[in-house]
Amino acid sequence: MGPADRPDLLGKVFISQFDPRPARAFVMAGIALFALAGLGTLAFVKVVPLVPLICIAILVFHFAPALWPSRPAIELRNDGFRLDGLGLIPWEAIGAIAYVERALGKSGRRPLALLEVNLVADFALAIVRPDPGPIWRKLQVRHWRKMGDTHLTILLSGLSDGPRDIRNAFEVFLGYPINGPRGLIA
C-alpha cells in the first residue's frame, strides 16, 4: 500500500522553496569582492573591468533560482515528490531512503542535512514526468544531485522549511520512518 492508496493524503501537499537568505549573503559577498577587483583594475590599469563584471553576472545568474524562488524546490503529493529541474518521482520508485546530517567546519554548529534516496529503477524509468526546464537551468543552483543511475542526494539545508520538517513530511507521505538521526534528547 503506497501513499497513492491512502485517502487521508488525498489533496495534501507539502511545498518547500529555496531560502533566499544564504544565497543573498553569498552573492553579496561575491559582488563586493568582484567590485573591489573591478575598482582596482580601473584605478591601476585604467581599463574597463570586464572580467569582474562578467563574474558578477555569472554569480547572480547561477544563484537566481535561490535569490528569486518562483517554483517550489521540493513538492510532496500523494502521487510522488517533484524536484525542481528533475521531475516527478512516484513513491513506489523509492527503494530505500536515509536521512544524513554532516557537520560543517570544525565547530559543527551548522549541520548539513541530506536525504539519500535509492530508486528501484534507473532515472529514465523512475521519473514519470520529467521537468528539465530550459537548457540554461542546468547551469543554475540545484538542491539535488544524481549519483550513478539510481541514487539521488537531496540537500535539505538551505530550503525555506527546516530539514527535520521536510524529513517529517517525507515520512508522512511514505507512511514509514526514515533511517537516520532523530535529534532526540535522552
Automatic annotation (TrEMBL):
Transmembrane segments: 25-44, 50-68
Keywords: Membrane, Transmembrane, Transmembrane helix
Protein name (database record): Uncharacterized protein
UniProt organism field: Candidatus Phycosocius bacilliformis
